[in-house]
Predict the 3D structure of the following.
Amino acid sequence: MAKTRIALIVWLSLFLLPAFAASSASTAKKPPRPAWTELTPAQQQVLAPLAPHWDELDTIRRKKWVTIADRYPKMKPQEQQRLQQRMTDWARLTPEERRVARERYQTLKKLPPDQRQQVRRQWKEYQQSLAPPEPEPAAPTAEPAAAN
């Protein structure tokens, strides 16, 4: 009887423990993908403003940015410039500011269309209030009379 128990314990330790170890290792948190080094040179060039923060991004956000980088060549130059500026601005934000921005975006996304339109209008008015005033056109000057 004791020999049977010992044999059973040995058998369990030899066959089941490695299986448990393998399953726990496979459920361990995998590093986010893709790594910066796995990006193509073109993707790295487009996403350069995010390079210092790439290791902080989770897999979902990395894949979203890679998708944007892949669409980049098809964008108009004005759209490309806007994307680069927004990425640079985003990279300058602190993690807390990014979190707040994401929360605000989600809140705005849930608003009814008429309220979203009102928020857009207010934002546009605010941006215009920050812009320097346009210079007034110079008054037309009278030409001196031609001497005969």
